[in-house]
Amino acid sequence: MAPGTNLDGSVVRRAQAEYLEMPGLRLTSAQAQRLWGLDRRTCDELLAELMSAHFLARTRDGSFVLSASRM
Fold it and tell me: What is the pLDDT of residues 24-55, one digit of tens each?
């Protein structure tokens, strides 16, 4: 978790676990918000954090998927 974020470590771990359990998972930001019960800002921080850690990648259509390096 990057300094200065409001992310709870358990939210990060839960998101990572979901993607690792279902490697084909594709979520839009709105779908991720609903799945994890997050507000938009927190979800955007979460997705940005996971992308900067190269855990997730963003597709051309805006979905978030497990990074190829994690498969």
Answer: 999 999 999 999 999 999 999 999 999 999 99
Domains in the chain, ordered, with CATH?
A: 9-70 (1.10.10.10)
For the entire predicted model, the pTM comes to 0.86
Strand ranges for the chain from DSSP E: 26-27, 56-58, 64-66
Other CB atoms closer than 10 Å to residue 33's CB: what's the count? 19
Closest listed residue to residue 27, CA positions, set 46, 8, 41: 46
**Backbone dihedral angles phi then psi of residue 27, each to the nearest 5 degrees:** -125, 140
